[in-house]
Predict the 3D structure of the following.
Amino acid sequence: LAKTTQPISMDSYEGQEVNITCSHNNIATNDYITWYQQFPSQGPRFIIQGYKTKVTNEVASLFIPADRKSSTLSLPRVSLSDTAVYYCLVVPSGYSSASKIIFGSGTRLSIRP
Amino acid sequence: KAGVTQTPRYLIKTRGQQVTLSCSPISGHRSVSWYQQTPGQGLQFLFEYFSETQRNKGNFPGRFSGRQFSNSRSEMNVSTLELGDSALYLCASSGGTGSDYGYTFGSGTRLTVV
């Protein structure tokens, strides 16, 4: 299982773009990069998933360089409601036991007015 | 479609008691997995059920057990509660097969042991 490393915490201000980088040096060929968001006393919520290059949805963008050893979650124009913990996960493609869904410590993002 | 439903949302129990938590997966999902989340240990995998069979189990003592019913609803039980069992217990469901492997989490049950 590929281990991920991401900053413990980040601060930003409303209206700014926030980029959270995750390192996953041992990512395997069939692994996908997945990001979850978690608010206090709630379950993690899927944000975005990608394999290579760039993926964008209505919430965020995910940038993955060619070597796939890192990825960057980009949140455009954040608001106070984006204050949460963000988890970067490396997940094998196809069926994967929930035991292989490893949540690290995550990045605690704090947005200020 | 309705999300993953966990009941109850909050629970306070005394040391030595037992507790049962319930999880109703997304309609059509056959896989249910359980996690324990604490500030010190983060999210830790407890076990996973698929079609009423336990498919995987995490590194937790035998006091933690679970089961899944024919309608895919799942329960987990913790016997002889300890103070350290205080945590947010999360349930996630997925299709469990083929390409439908994405996990959707419920809001959790906050268990406090006093």
